[in-house]
């Protein structure tokens, strides 16, 4: 069994995102491209985003810290610390309304 502190990893990623030119930082904490399930911690500075992209499968975003907006087409959902958002099976984007860290969970189909 492997255990890690998401809070500690998130703190590290927020620090890295604050100095990165992209304003973001990410680390896969479980799984990968060769597995069905993948969990990735993502830190985004306020005003930064994950540009519009397709969903590779079923997915959720859990907000560990901050506030984000997930948008698809004309619809958007705001989420803050402690919220879980189901990612729609459509092109979507995530914008950081404030410095944020999220846990992205995807099960590829």
UniProtKB/TrEMBL annotation:
SUPFAM superfamilies tied to this protein: RmlC-like cupins
InterPro entries to which the protein is assigned, alphabetical: Cupin_2, RmlC-like_jellyroll, RmlC_Cupin_sf
One Pfam assignment: Cupin_2
Ranges of residues in domain Cupin type-2: 42-103
PANTHER family referenced in this protein's UniProt entry, alphabetically: SLR8022 PROTEIN
Name this protein carries in UniProt: Cupin 2 barrel domain-containing protein
The organism of origin for this protein: Rhodococcus pyridinivorans AK37
